[in-house]
Amino acid sequence: MRLFDKPAHVLHDMLVNKEITAVELLNDVFLRIDEVEDQVKAYLTQTRKTALEQARLVDAKIAKGETIGFLEGIPGAIKDNICTMGVKTTCASKMLEHFVPPYNATVVEKLQTQNPVILGKTNMDEFAMGGSTENSAYFPTHNPWNLDCVPGGSSGGSAAAVAAGTAIWSIGSDTGGSIRQPASFCGIVGIKPTYGRVSRYGLVAFASSLDQIGPLTRDVTDCAHLLNILCGYDAKDSTSINAEVPDFTKSLVKDIKGLKIGLPKEYFVKGMDADVERAIRTAIKKLESLGAEVVEVSMPHTDYAISTYYLLAPAEASSNLARYDGVSYGERVDGIDIVDMMNKTRSAKFGEEVKRRIMIGSYALSAGYYDAYYVKALKVRTLVKQDFDEAFEKVDLIVAPTAPTPAYKIGEMNSDPLKMYLQDICTIPLNLAGLPGISIPCGFTNTKMPVGLQLIGKPLDEATIIRAAYTYEQSNEFHNSIAPLGEDKK
Ligand code: GLN
After folding, report:
1. What residue's CA is closest to ligand 1, atom 5?
2. Predicted confidence (pLDDT) per residue in 336-348, tens digit
3. Which pTM does this prediction carry?
4. Which of 120, 167, 232, 484 has the fewest other C-beta atoms within 10 Å?
5. Which one of the listed residues 93, 136, 158, 178 is annotated catalytic?
6. Catalytic residue among 132, 154, 158, 170, which?
7. Please, what are the domains in the chain?
8. Closest atom of ligand 1 relative to the 174 alpha carbon
9. Tens digits of per-residue pLDDT, 254-306?
10. Could you tell me what percentage of the chain is helix, strand and coil, using 3-state DSSP and rounding each to the nearest 5?
């Protein structure tokens, strides 16, 4: 029996009931990696030796009759912009090619209390800038549903690994959609919690006022369990919210009777893929038949969200990435003096997209343009947030597509950055407003590519998102569809 294709909660029960051992489970995932990783290319670094030690530890615990936590012995992977002590953390950049963090991110510390089995670090767009994983300085990751397609991004490696069964769960980060969009492209579940819900300590900063860490999983049940582990106040992150974290597994109930769900017409953009629109509209009908009341809401500033984000995120990035100067840490290319050294280092070690954003950001922050661009963008950010505030006076939840298209072909978009930026229309507004949002599978296109449905919640109301997502998920089989990849080898 193969095990890689099962969600964590099923595997956890099998471990507890002694139907399998953690080492057996790990060996099956290793086998899966051997079978398909050369096609998918989700990993930048694999940590097989420590993974095996971790699995043995869990088996010893079980043999002694000790109880185990949800994630104990379940193999998962971590995006390569999250610091792992003693394990390379490159952000898929040449700049951090040899960076080995001397500390763990808070989320890694939290995971570690669970004795999970960490398989390695996953590929991503360089410094999380992008939506296809093609901006990785190392190699692109491929979509397990069609190897010619992108897995989405920037957490493309994390999403592809879960979809391919080369990890049972993974952790990603979302600044403008980087958990939800790859989850949608790869047919899995991904949630961006409320800004401040999960500590950003040890997440390599891209745009600090937007960045948030979250899980990518096979189904909503696993997502709720992972949220329980990851969420919580952290004094080491000054933007961490000191709010009570509910037990999200209590929201795993099939009940959305009377739930008011808003449908923003602005999210059904011109040029939206017809198959995606059909899948989303069918899902909305399903939510209605399950007892929800769907009403139209208006979010008039949605149109401005992309330009706002693509000013604010690069502005913050240009400041955050100033630290890679060849002096403190990261790579260095020697020069004739310090200015020449910094020039050479940053020219050689940053990729095209990162340089583009540093330039846009520096421009927007420069003395003559600060008010015209940066300050104006901050004001529009407030308007985008107000759209949500007003909508949430009338509804409990908002439903929308996660992305206007399914996964596209590798190389199709990356010659046109603007076209790629426009893809983020449905995910970016939540980051600007700091709101939680999940993407769950809701069907397929005619060419069998997955489509994701996005559910957006009020601040700190991940519980309602989980409840609605679970109710919807249990009414269909989409989450049980495994990417066809490697089928012949099973
Ligand atoms: N695609 C968006 C960007 O390129 C979002 C990235 C992210 O969420 N990290 O900035």
Report:
1. 176
2. 999 999 999 999 9
3. 0.97
4. 484
5. 178
6. 154
7. 8-266+273-299+386-483 (3.90.1300.10)
8. 8
9. 999 999 999 999 999 888 999 999 999 999 999 999 999 999 999 999 999 99
10. 45, 15, 40
